Amino acid sequence: MSNNCWICGKQDSTLFRCRFCGKTFCVEHRLPERHACEGLEHQKKYGFTKSPGDGSNYSNFDTEGIFKNMFKETAKQASKGLAFSFLNKIKRWATTSPTMAIIIICVASYIIGNLIITNVIGINYFALLGLPADISQILVKPWTIVTHIFVHSNFAHLFLNMFVLFFFGNEFEKRFGKQRFLTVFFLAGIIASIGFALITTTPFPLVGASGAVIGIFASLAILVPDLPIFVFFIPMRIKHAILLLIGIEFLFFIINTQDMIAHSAHLMGMAVGILMGFWIKKTISVYRTSTRNEYVRRW
């Protein structure tokens, strides 16, 4: 071992050898932090130290350190991969399915509106985007005719609407197309909200996609009446389910329950969905008849 400090060159009988880089130092420079130890940096980065003396070869592998670094790097890459995969799936859902796009917008609206706009910024999110109960106020806030569909009061409200929309919206899309789905959805939601404002007297704004979702459900009941579904784990045909739902909503509307649920909007949404169901069924029947006649003429 050299009798000189590698930093200051001081000769001393009591010198210290660094266990990371293998060089000798005086009392003042013996700590790795005092002599900018490159061996310590290698250990932090690679998990092993330089061999003492020549400063070029590597030995004394720190197996535990190597596996820790490998695990950290693997976890980092895996988390990045999962994040990109999830984002790509959301992008694909949003661009290929109107049902999934609406669900994504509603979930994002709930998170941003309730957690950021209301709690952090301090703006009344429901007053901004919810449909006013006073019909005259709708003229001042015309955007609320559409935006109220994407706003939900609480998690249970959001979950129930999106749960029903996920199953019946996708079913409607597959059977009758995306354009018809969007037409029924927004027409039912808008007319249901206007009907609510005309009929109901309440100081609270209307929020939620219930009217639009029930419109899709009702339209599907007209178009595919024998579709088997489960209502509270009870199997039944969708045509029986819509009759049951109409009866419950009409009963609650008549007795005027103070449950903060827009039963009038639900009834209006169902009415629009039923009418649209008959209209779609008629257009499909006319199209099939005309196509068959054209085939006969060509034959």
UniProtKB/TrEMBL annotation:
Protein origin, superkingdom: Archaea
Annotated TM spans: 99-125, 145-169, 181-200, 206-224, 236-255, 261-280
InterPro entries for the chain: AN1-like_Znf (IPR035896), Peptidase_S54_rhomboid_dom (IPR022764), Rhomboid-like_sf (IPR035952), Rhomboid_protease_S54 (IPR050925), Znf_AN1 (IPR000058)
Membrane topology reported for the UniProt record: Multi-pass membrane protein
PROSITE patterns membership: ZF_AN1 (PS51039)
Keyword field: Hydrolase, Membrane, Metal-binding, Transmembrane, Transmembrane helix, Zinc, Zinc-finger
Record-level GO cellular component terms: membrane
Subcellular location: Membrane
GO molecular function, one term: zinc ion binding
Protein name stated in the entry: Rhomboid family protein
Organism name: Methanohalobium evestigatum (strain ATCC BAA-1072 / DSM 3721 / NBRC 107634 / OCM 161 / Z-7303)
The organism's taxonomic lineage, starting at the top: Archaea, Methanobacteriati, Methanobacteriota, Stenosarchaea group, Methanomicrobia
